[in-house]
Each structure stands twice: as C-alpha cells, then as structure tokens.
Specification:
Blueprint: H1 7-17, H2 22-29, H3 33-47, H4 52-62, H5 65-75
Length: 78
C-alpha cells in the first residue's frame, strides 16, 4: 500500500467489511452515495484491489479488528 487510508476511507472500508451496501454505508456514515463510491474507488486504488471481496480481505489484515469489533459494540449493531 503506497498511500495510507484516510480516516473516512477506513470507516467506509469497515462498513464494506461488515457487508454493507453502498447505500447502507452512505446512510450509516451520513454521506452521499456518490461520496461513498469515491471513497471506495480510492480504497481500491490504495489497496491495489479490483473488487469488494479483495478489499475486505486486505482490509481485515490491515485494520485493527479489535477496533472494528469495539466500534460495532459501541454502536450496538452491525
């Protein structure tokens, strides 16, 4: 990974890992659908992947899963 993910890109990636749709991510993060698509495109480029599954697999290995789990618990839902 040549560039680091921004905090917002990480948030989008976490929701992608959780299996949320683009619309679900937009709703959860209070951003527009086009913004979600832009973040996902940027994440794909930075992680050097071509699809959501590859991004999720790479994301799980890159992100602190404890933070993802605690975020889930804090929000009370997936």
């Amino acid at each position: 990974m040549s560039e680091k993910l921004t905090e917002r890109e990480k948030a989008v990636l976490i929701e992608l890992i959780r299996g949320k749709s683009n619309k679900g991510i937009a709703t959860k993060l209070y951003i527009s659908l086009s913004t979600v698509k832009a973040h996902i495109s940027s994440v794909f480029q930075k992680l050097n992947v071509t699809n959501r599954v590859e991004a999720a697999v790479k994301g799980v290995s890159l992100l602190d899963l404890n933070a993802v789990e605690q975020s889930t618990l804090k929000n009370g839902k997936n």
